[in-house]
Design brief:
heterodimer; A: alpha/beta; Transcription Regulator spoIIAA; 5-stranded mixed beta sheet; about 45% helix; B: alpha+beta; 6-stranded antiparallel beta sheet; rod-shaped
C-alpha cells in the first residue's frame, strides 16, 4: 500500500502531491511533508489528492491540523480532488466547507495565485 | 522172634543129653545082645565085636562113663551068655578070662575112642558153633556198625539200632541220646517186639527218659563200671530215686530186666542204650559182651553221625554264609535285604528272626525286619515291637552292646522273670508268643551300635559256638550292608536332590532365557508365566513398576493362572504397599497369610481374591530397583526364603528385559519424535490462510515408520499476500531423500521470500543441484498465486503438471522443463494462467499415479478422483483424491498432493492480522477484492473500503493498550447484504474525541448499517450494505 508524497515548489505555491493510499500507516509522510512546508513559513499551499486512492480520518486530521496552522498564519491550504468517494468523504465530514477545494490542477493554481495576490496586498 | 542162638546156651541142654546117653549105654548092648543071641543062637566073642561100633556110638553120644559102663555091661553080658549054660558071670569069668578081658579092653578102647571122638566132635561143634556164633556176632556187630550206612540220619539210625538190637538182644530196646552241646539226654528211639503196645511203650519210655535219663547217665558215668543191670524185682528202697523210677517202669511194663549201657565215644557220652527183656529170658556174659560191643559200635556210629552232622552243619553254615554274603553283596534294597536275612536266619537258626535298628531320635530299637513261618505271629510280634520297643539305655541293650558278643536268653533262666517284668517286649516274647530261647547278636557300624539281630526258638534248641559265630558274622555283615544301604540311600537322595536342583536350575534357566530373549515382555509374558509355573507354582503373577517419582506403582503385566484378578487394582501410590516396603528396604518380602493382617494394601486386596500368601521380589537393574515381581498362592505359608532365592535371578533378568524394552520403546519414541520433528521441520504443519483461496494438502511417505520421504509440498504466504506453492519429488525415499528434500524445499522458500519468480527459483536451484556431485534428481513445480487476482505464474522442472478443475472441466497446466540437477543449461520457462473463482488446482507427485504400476491407469484414476471430489472442500478432498487415485494399492513411492481452491465469489473472505497500521492497507485490499469479486461497481466498492477502513482504524488506534492484538476482518453475504465485520479482542480505552467523530460518521454514512457489539472479550463492528439484487451463487 504504497503512498508517495512529494512537494513541488516551482509554481505559484508549493504543491504537495499525494498519490496512493493515505492511512494511519502512511499518513506520517503526509504530515512530515506538511510540517516541513509549515516550517519554512509557507502559508499558502496546495495538496494534490488527484492520485490519492484512499484517505482515512487520520489523513483528514492531518489536513485539518495543517489548515489550522496556515490559517492562523493567515494562509490557505487548498485541496485538489475529483474522486467521487473523496468528495463524499469531505462532504459528509463537513470539511468541504472548511477547505478550499478544487477539481483540477489548473483551477487549483488559479485559486492559489489569487491567494498570493491577496496576501501580497496585505 | 525165636530163640536166639545167644540165649541160655548151657546147663539145661547138657543134662538132657547125659541122661539120654546113659540110657543108650545100657539099653543098646542089651538089645544088640538080644539080637545076636536070637540070630546067632550061639555066642562067640567074635560076634560081640560087632558091638564095637555100638560102643563107639554110646560113648560118642553119652560120654566116657556111659561108654565104659556099656563096655562093662556088655562084657558081663557076653560072659554070661558065653558060658555053656547060662549061668554065673563069675563062672564065666573063671572059665575064660582072657576073651572077656580082651573084649573089655577093646570095648574100653572103643569107648574111649568114642568119647574122644565125641569130645572132638563136640569141640568141633563148639568151635563151629563158636565160630558160627562169632561170625554171627561179628555179622551182627557189623550190621550194627553199618546201620549207619543204611540209615545215615540220626533219627532213622536210632530207630534202626533199636530194631536191630531188639531182634537180637532182647524184647525191647530204647535209645536215649544227649543233645550235642547241651548234653541233655532225650529219647531218640524205642522199639519193642510187642507190636500192639509199641506206641504206648514208646511214649512211656520217652517220658521216663526225659525225667530220669539224665541222672541215670550221670550215675553210670560216675560209676566205675559203666553199665547197669536192673531187675524188676529189685528192691527200690536200696536204690537212688532215679534208678528206682526205672525199676518201677520195668515193673509197670512187665519187663524182667533192663540193661543200660552208656554210649561212649572217646570223651563224649553220647547217650544211653537200654535193652529190656521180658520174663523168662536171661542174659549170659556173652550176650552182655555182645551188647557192649554193639553199644560201642552204636556209639562210634553216633559219633560219626554227629561228626558228619557237624560237618554237614558246617557246610550248611558255610553255604548259608556264602548265600548271605551274596545277598549282602548284591541286594541294594535295604528293606528287601533285611527281609531276606530275617527269613534265612529264621529258617536256619530257629523259628523266629527279628532285626531291629536303633532309631536315634526315639532312643529305642525299632523293627527293621521280622520273619516267622506263621504270618499271624509276625503281626503280633511286630505290634509288640511297635508299641513297646526296646529302649537303647536298657541294661539288656547296654550289656549287649558293651559286651560286643551275642547274649543268650532262655525261658529257663532264673532272671527271666525280672526281665519279663521290666520289658513288656520280653514279656510278650517269652509269654504268649511262645519263645523259649533267644539269641541276641549286636550289630555295629563303625564301632557304634546300629541294631540287634535276634534269632528265637520255640524249643530248647540252643545254639553252638559255630552257630553263634555264624550269627555274629551275619550281624557284622548286616551292619556293613545297612550302613552301605543307608549311605547309598542318602547318596541317592543327594543325587535326587541334585537332579531336582538341576531340573529346577534348568527350569529356572528356561524361565530366565524366556525372559532374556523376549523383546516385548508383554508379548512373552504368558510363556514366561507358564515356564515359571513349572519351577515354582503360583496362582497369580504380577509385575509392578515404580513410577518415575518412585512414589507410584503401575502393574503392566499380570497373569492369574488359577485365580482371577483381584477386583481392586493394585496400581497407585507406593505408600502402604508391600511393594513400597520392598523399595524402601531393598529386600524381598514374604507374606505368610494375608488373612492374618491388614498391614499392606496387597493383604486386603489379594485376600479378597483368594490369595493367602505371596512373595514380592525386587527387580533391579544396575543396583536400582525398577519394580517388583510378585507371586501369590491360595495356600497360606506357601512361599519361603528358599523360594525367594530361586526367583531372584529370574526377577533380575526380567528387570533387564523390561528396562531394555523401555529403552527400546524410548528409542522408538525418539525415532518417532525425530521423524515427527523432522517431518515438522521438513513439511509444513499448517497451510497458510489466505482469503479467496483455500488450501488442502496431504503427504503419504512410502515408509510410514520414517514419516518423511523425498516428496514434499509447500505453501507459503509471501509478504504481499501472494501464495507461493511448490511441490517436488527427490528421487528415492526414506531419510536420505528426505534430507535432500528438506534442503531443496528451504532453498525454494528462501528464494521465494526474496521475491524471486518461479522460473528464477527453478533456475537457481538447478544450478545449485548441478554443482553438487552425485546429487539426486529432483522434480519441482513452483507457482506464485495472487489470490486477489487469481493470477497463477508457474514453472516446472520434470514434474507432472498439475491439473486445474474449472468450469471447462479438468485441464492440465503447461508442461515443464527437465528435472533439476541434470543439466546446468536447462531452459526453464514461466507460464501464466488465471484461476477463476470456483476453480481447483491439483498438484501431485508421481507416486500417486504410479502406485497402480500403469501410469495411464493412474492418471485416469486421478482424473476420476478429482471429478468425484469436486464438491468437497480442499482439506477433505486431498485425502479423498489420494484414496480414490490409489484405489487401495500401496504406493512404492511417496505421494504428495496439494489442492488450491479459488473460492467462489460468494464464499466468505476473512483475514486475521495484527492490529497494526501497516496492515490497514492489506485490510483495504481484502475488502476491495472481496466486494469487487462480488461484482460491486468501483465507486460503491471504494465506499465500502472507506467505511471498513475507518472501522479498522478504530481498532488499530484504540482497541489495544500495550500489547497489540489481532483484528479479524470478515466479509460475507448475509441474506441480500454484504456484511463486513471488524472484530477485535481488546478492551477499548474510552473514546477520545479528537476528530474521532469523523471516522464514525464516515462509517455510518458510507454504509447501510453499523452495528457494534462489545463484550469483555472484544468488540465486533458489523457494517452492511444491502444489495439491489442477490448475487448469483458460485459466479
Amino acid at each position: 500500500m504504497e503512498a508517495s508524497i512529494s512537494t513541488r515548489r516551482d509554481g505559484v505555491v508549493p504543491v504537495v502531491d499525494v498519490s496512493g493510499e493515505i492511512d494511519l500507516y502512511t499518513s506520517p509522510k503526509l504530515k512530515a511533508a506538511l510540517d516541513e512546508l509549515l516550517a519554512t513559513g509557507q502559508v499558502h499551499f496546495l495538496v494534490n489528492l488527484l492520485d490519492t486512492t484512499y484517505l482515512d480520518s487520520t489523513a483528514l486530521s492531518i489536513l485539518t491540523s495543517a489548515l489550522k496552522h496556515v490559517q492562523g498564519a493567515g494562509g490557505m491550504l487548498g485541496l485538489v480532488f475529483n474522486q467521487p468517494q473523496i468528495d463524499r468523504i469531505f462532504t459528509i465530514t463537513g470539511l468541504k466547507d472548511v477547505f478550499p477545494t478544487f477539481v483540477s490542477q489548473a483551477e487549483a493554481l488559479a485559486g492559489a495565485r489569487a491567494w498570493e495576490k491577496v496576501a501580497s496586498k496585505e | 522172634m525165636g530163640e536166639s542162638r545167644f540165649k541160655g546156651v548151657g546147663l539145661r541142654r547138657r543134662a538132657v543129653r547125659t541122661a539120654l546117653a546113659l540110657l543108650a549105654a545100657v539099653l543098646v548092648p542089651y538089645l544088640v545082645s538080644l539080637i545076636l543071641v536070637i540070630l546067632a543062637k550061639l555066642f562067640a566073642y567074635q560076634f560081640l565085636y560087632l558091638y564095637m561100633p555100638g560102643l563107639f556110638l554110646v560113648s560118642y553120644f553119652g560120654g566116657l562113663w556111659p561108654g565104659l559102663v556099656s563096655v562093662l555091661a556088655s562084657t558081663v553080658l557076653a560072659s554070661y551068655i558065653s558060658t555053656p549054660h547060662v549061668g554065673n558071670v563069675l563062672d564065666g569069668l573063671r572059665t575064660e578070662l582072657l576073651p572077656p578081658l580082651i573084649f573089655f579092653f577093646s570095648g574100653a578102647l572103643m569107648a574111649l575112642a568114642g568119647t574122644h571122638t565125641s569130645r572132638y566132635h563136640e569141640r568141633l561143634r563148639e568151635d563151629l558153633a563158636r565160630s558160627r556164633y562169632q561170625k554171627q556176632r561179628d555179622t551182627f556187630l557189623a550190621e550194627v556198625a553199618t546201620l549207619r550206612m543204611l540209615q545215615p540220619e540220626r533219627k532213622d539210625f536210632a530207630v534202626a539200632v533199636c530194631q536191630k538190637l531188639t531182634e537180637s538182644l532182647g524184647d525191647a530196646c530204647g535209645l536215649i541220646l544227649s543233645r550235642q552241646h547241651t548234653g541233655v539226654p532225650e529219647p531218640a528211639a524205642f522199639f519193642s517186639t510187642d507190636t500192639a503196645g509199641r506206641e504206648r511203650l514208646t511214649s512211656a519210655f520217652a517220658e521216663a527218659s526225659l525225667a530220669n535219663g539224665g541222672p541215670l547217665l550221670r550215675r553210670m558215668l560216675a560209676a566205675a563200671e559203666p553199665m547197669m543191670v536192673l531187675r524188676a524185682d529189685q528192691s527200690i528202697e536200696t536204690v537212688p530215686e532215679d534208678v528206682g523210677a526205672w525199676v518201677d517202669w520195668l515193673a509197670r511194663f512187665q519187663f524182667d530186666a533192663a540193661l543200660f549201657l552208656p554210649l561212649l565215644a572217646g570223651e563224649d557220652a553220647l547217650g544211653i542204650l537200654a535193652i529190656f527183656v521180658k520174663p523168662g529170658h536171661v542174659w549170659d556174659d556173652e550176650t552182655v559182651t555182645v551188647a557192649r560191643a554193639a553199644a560201642d559200635r552204636v556209639a562210634l556210629a553216633l559219633q560219626q553221625i554227629r561228626a558228619r552232622d557237624q560237618q554237614r552243619r558246617r557246610e550248611r553254615h558255610t553255604a548259608f554264609l556264602a548265600d548271605m554274603m551274596l545277598e549282602f553283596a548284591t541286594q541294594r534294597d535295604l528293606a528287601v535285604l533285611l527281609d531276606t536275612v530275617a527269613k534265612r536266619c529264621a529258617e536256619s537258626f530257629g523259628e523266629w528272626c527279628a532285626i531291629s535298628l536303633i532309631d536315634p531320635d526315639a532312643r529305642s530299637a525299632r523293627l527293621g525286619a521280622i520273619f516267622h513261618k506263621d504270618p499271624s505271629k509276625i503281626t503280633r510280634l511286630r505290634s509288640a515291637f511297635d508299641t513297646t520297643p526296646l529302649p537303647v539305655d536298657h541294661p539288656f541293650a547296654t550289656a549287649l552292646f558293651d559286651g560286643r558278643r551275642p547274649l543268650l536268653l532262655t525261658a529257663d533262666d532264673p532272671n527271666i522273670g525280672d526281665l519279663r517284668a521290666q520289658l513288656p517286649l520280653a514279656n510278650s516274647m517269652f509269654g504268649p508268643l511262645g519263645v523259649h530261647e533267644l539269641l541276641a547278636v549286636p550289630i555295629y557300624t563303625g564301632g557304634e551300635p546300629l541294631g540287634i539281630l535276634s534269632v528265637m526258638s520255640e524249643s530248647a534248641r540252643g545254639w553252638d559256638d559255630d552257630e553263634q559265630r555264624l550269627a555274629s558274622l551275619i550281624a557284622d555283615r548286616a551292619g556293613v550292608a545297612i550302613t552301605n544301604a543307608r549311605l547309598a540311600a542318602s547318596e541317592r537322595r543327594a543325587l535326587e536332590d541334585a537332579e531336582r536342583e538341576a531340573r529346577r536350575v534348568n527350569a529356572a534357566g528356561r524361565v530366565i532365557s524366556i525372559a532374556a530373549s523376549s523383546l516385548d515382555p508383554g508379548a512373552a509374558f504368558d510363556e514366561f508365566a507358564e515356564a515359571l509355573q513349572l519351577l515354582l507354582p503360583f496362582d497369580r503373577l504380577a509385575v509392578s513398576l515404580y513410577g518415575p517419582d518412585r512414589n507410584s506403582l503401575s502393574v503392566p503385566y499380570a497373569k492369574g493362572l488359577r485365580l482371577s484378578a483381584p477386583r481392586e487394582s493394585l496400581e497407585g501410590p507406593t505408600a502402604g504397599t508391600a511393594r513400597g516396603w520392598v523399595l524402601d528396604n531393598g529386600t524381598p518380602f514374604v507374606r505368610e497369610d494375608t488373612t492374618e493382617t491388614h498391614e499392606f494394601t496387597e493383604d486386603v486386596v489379594l485376600a479378597s481374591a483368594g490369595i493367602r500368601s505371596y512373595a514380592v521380589v525386587p527387580m533391579s537393574v544396575g543396583g536400582k530397583a525398577i519394580g517388583t515381581l510378585k507371586l501369590g498362592h491360595h495356600e497360606p505359608r506357601f512361599y519361603s526364603q528358599a523360594h525367594v532365592k530361586l526367583v531372584q535371578p529370574i526377577a533380575d533378568q526380567l528387570a533387564i528385559t523390561i528396562s531394555r524394552f523401555q529403552l527400546l520403546e524410548q528409542a522408538q519414541r525418539r525415532i518417532g519424535e525425530l521423524s515427527e520433528t523432522l517431518q515438522r521441520a521438513l513439511l509444513p504443519v499448517d497451510l497458510p490462510k489466505t482469503p479467496f483461496a483455500s488450501l488442502g494438502a496431504t503427504y503419504r511417505p512410502a515408509d510410514p515408520e520414517v514419516k518423511v520421504g523425498g516428496d514434499w509440498y509447500d505453501a507459503i504466504l509471501l509478504s504481499d499476500d501472494h501464495l507461493l506453492l511448490s511441490i517436488g519429488d527427490v528421487a528415492g525415499h526414506g531419510m536420505a531423500a528426505a534430507a535432500v528434500m528438506g534442503q531443496v524445499r528451504h532453498v525454494v522458500r528462501a528464494y521465494a521470500f526474496e521475491g524471486q519468480t518461479p522460473v528464477r527459483i527453478l533456475t537457481t536451484v538447478n544450478r545449485l543441484l548441478c554443482s553438487v556431485a552425485d546429487s539426486l534428481q529432483v522434480s519441482l513445480w513452483v507457482a506464485a498465486f495472487d489470490p486477489f487476482t487469481g493470477n497463477l505464474v508457474y514453472s516446472g522442472a520434470g514434474h507432472p503438471p498439475p491439473l486445474a478443475l474449472t468450469n471447462r472441466g479438468v485441464e492440465q497446466l503447461e508442461s515443464t522443463g527437465p528435472p533439476l540437477g541434470v543439466s546446468l543449461s536447462a531452459p526453464y520457462r514461466e507460464a501464466h494462467t488465471t484461476l477463476e473463482p470456483g476453480s481447483r488446482l491439483v498438484a501431485y507427485t508421481d507416486g500417486l499415479i504410479e502406485a497402480t504400476r500403469d501410469v495411464l491407469v493412474g492418471e485416469r484414476r486421478l482424473l476420476e478422483a478429482i471429478r468425484a471430489t469436486q464438491d468437497s472442500p480442499a482439506d477433505r478432498a486431498v485425502d479423498a483424491v489420494v484414496e480414490y487415485a490409489l484405489g487401495g494399492a500401496e504406493p512404492d513411492d511417496d505421494v504428495a498432493l496439494l489442492i488450491l481452491d479459488v473460492l467462489p465469489v460468494d464464499a466468505p473472505a476473512s483475514a486475521t492480522l495484527p492490529a497494526a497500521p501497516e496492515n490497514l492497507g492489506r485490510i483495504r485490499r481484502l475488502v476491495r477484492t472481496y466486494v469487487r469479486r462480488l461484482g460491486m461497481p468501483d465507486g460503491r466498492a471504494e465506499e465500502i473500503v472507506i467505511a471498513v477502513g475507518e472501522a479498522a482504524l478504530n481498532v488499530v488506534e484504540h482497541a489495544y493498550r500495550g500489547i497489540r492484538g489481532n483484528i479479524v476482518i470478515r466479509g460475507e453475504l448475509i441474506g441480500n447484504a454484504i456484511t463486513v465485520t471488524v472484530r477485535d479482542f481488546g478492551q477499548w480505552r474510552p473514546q477520545v474525541e479528537r476528530g474521532r467523530g469523523r471516522g464514525t460518521s464516515i462509517m455510518q454514512r458510507f454504509s447501510d448499517g453499523v452495528k457494534t457489539f462489545t463484550t469483555p472479550g472484544g468488540t465486533t463492528v458489523q457494517l452492511s450494505w444491502t444489495l439491489d439484487r442477490p448475487v448469483p451463487a458460485g459466479s
